[in-house]
Amino acid sequence: MIRVTDMNLDLPIVALTLANGRTADRAVLWASATRGSGEVMDAVTNTGISREAEAEDLRLRALMRSAQDGDRVAYEDLLKACLPRIRRRLQRRGVDPDLVDDTIQDVLLTIHRARQTYDPSRPFAVWLAMITDRRAIDAARRHHRHAMHEVSSPDAYETHVDDSGDPQPFVTTNAIDRIRGSIAELPAAQRDAVERLSLRQQSLTEASQETGRSVGSLKVNLHRGLKALRALLNPEGRS
Amino acid sequence: MIGASGPSHEEMIGRLVGDLRPVRRTRPPLVDTLLWTSAVAAFALVLTPRVNFDALAARLTAAPDMWLALAGSLVTMVLATIAAFMLGLPDRDPRWALAPLPGLALWLGASGLGCLRAGLEAFGPIPTHEIIDCFAFIVGFSVPLSGLMLLLRRRAYSLRPTLNAAIAGLAASAAAASLLTLVHPFDATVLDLGVHFIAVGVVVVSNGIASRRFGGA
Questions:
Q1: Which of A36-40, A54-58, A164-168, B17-21 has the lowest mean pLDDT?
Q2: Of A29, A205, B99, B109, which one has the greatest count of Cβ atoms within 10 A?
């Protein structure tokens, strides 16, 4: 059984085929075996693939045929029509969202360089899907290779000795003084909640027992206190 | 690349449209296959004056495995040629790369049978010049045949250029090995067979490496 993800078909065709209760294998056979438009129409009738998808494919074939002959308007229309199809296919292939735009451009370049290999008597969707899938694999491999050369170390900042000679600490004395000053400006209940829960890392139960306030009240005061602190430390509202 | 300095998709499309020139479509793979195998046949014709047909007929009649080995190399050549041209088109099934395997199995199996039949004699000494000649013949014929295939595939665009070139190399070396049978109709000894397949391997790997260095896709 051929998996749906291995197929050389465009998404709408797959979706329409499956929606019509046909097996994926038949759709693959349609995509790989059909040659002339007459055969495609027969296949469409047999497999339940919508006439809209077929008509769209015929339109793209015609555009590509004109592009092969040097028609720039047709070529522009074709590439623009390809964009959403490529994006959908890449997303479906699980390409990292950060890589999708780069990969789309790789696919566009490949379409340009390989345009002479397209045979207008064959489905355009299959030709495009094969190129897109291959470039998706290439992108994933490149990404993997880059990742192999990078080291993830969340503790690096704490364990790495800064030998740059820069005496500037992460948090300056000035900043600490500002935070202290701002906390002091908070209303007593909020200040108490911030000091206990945020600075001393007390649990809500501990703080509740020591202050005699309810857990709910402490939560509300902590939330309001932190919000007020943010406003005091960042009066212009920058993040 | 897209980023602060990369083009948007619309800009990229604009550039590609600006660069558009009319192109000639690639020929159907089977037409290219026919052209290339015709060239191999032409090479065979050129070799005809050097062929001892009586010796060839006698050996092929006496040793059926030699027929099989020749058939195996020819089937490998034809299937690898079709596969090489198919893989030059993006919308063809990449499993075409597996097509030469049955021919290759027949070729290796029959050649191995020849070695077994020759028995201990097979391990006897072989003149060094003969080994070098076989090696040089396969590699020497593979170079122009690979070049011709490259010429026929110049409008192709493979999504797997290295694999495609390696399959093309297999086709060329299988053709050269088939031609070798015409002028070298002897039992394949283990050493002989080893030299043949090392030569085939050298051609396949060289094609693959060349495509990585000079290939486009």
A1: A36-40
A2: B99
Nearest to B20 among A67, A130, A134 (CB): A67
Q: What is the pLDDT of residue A170?
A: 57
What topology is assigned to A4-148 in CATH?
Rna Polymerase Sigma Factor; Chain: A (1.10.1740)
Q: What is the pLDDT of residues B176-193, one digit of tens each?
A: 888 888 887 665 566 667
pLDDT at B153 over 60: yes
Say how many C-beta atoms besides its own lie within 10 A of residue B122's C-beta. Answer: 18
Report which of A66, A124, A112 is spatially closest to residue B18, judged by C-alpha positions.
A112
Using the beta-carbon criterion (under 8 Å), do A76 and B17 form an inter-chain contact?
Answer: yes
Task: Give ∠ CA B67-B71-B77 in degrees, rounded to 5.
Answer: 150
Q: Residue A9 and residue A12: Cα distance in Å, rounded?
A: 8
DSSP result, A167-186: ---SS-HHHHHHHHHHHHHS
Distance CA A232, CA B139 (A): 80
Residue A32 with chain B: CB contacts under 8 Å? 93
DSSP characters for A125-138? HHHHHHHHHHHHHH
Domain contains B4: no
The correct CATH number of A173-233 out of 2.60.40.1920, 1.10.3720.10, 1.10.10.10, 3.30.450.20 is 1.10.10.10
How far does A177 lie from chain B, in Å, by closest CA?
A: 39
Distance separating alpha carbons of residues A35 and B2, to the nearest angstrom: 37
pLDDT of residue B180: 86
ipTM of the complex: 0.81
Is residue A87 pLDDT above 90, yes or no? yes
Instruction: Give domain status of residue B186, yes or no.
Output: yes
Residues of B in contact with A83 (CB under 8 A): 9
Q: Which amino acid is at B78?
A: V
> What span, in angstroms and rounded, lies between the C-alpha atoms of A68 and B34?
25
Highest mean pLDDT (candidates A18-27, A150-159, A180-189, A227-236)? A180-189
Q: How many CB atoms lie within 10 A of CB A81?
A: 15
Task: Please tell me what DSSP assigns to residue A194.
Answer: I
Asked whether the predicted pLDDT for residue A34 surpasses 60, the reply is no
Where exactly are the structural domains of chain A? Answer: 4-148, 173-233
pLDDT digits (tens, 9 = 90+) for A226-236: 888 888 887 76
CB A101 to CB B90 under 8 A? Answer: no
**Exposed/middle/buried for residue B172 (C-beta within 10 Å: 0-12, 13-18, 19+):** buried
Rounded-to-10 torsion of CA A107, A109, A112, A114: -70
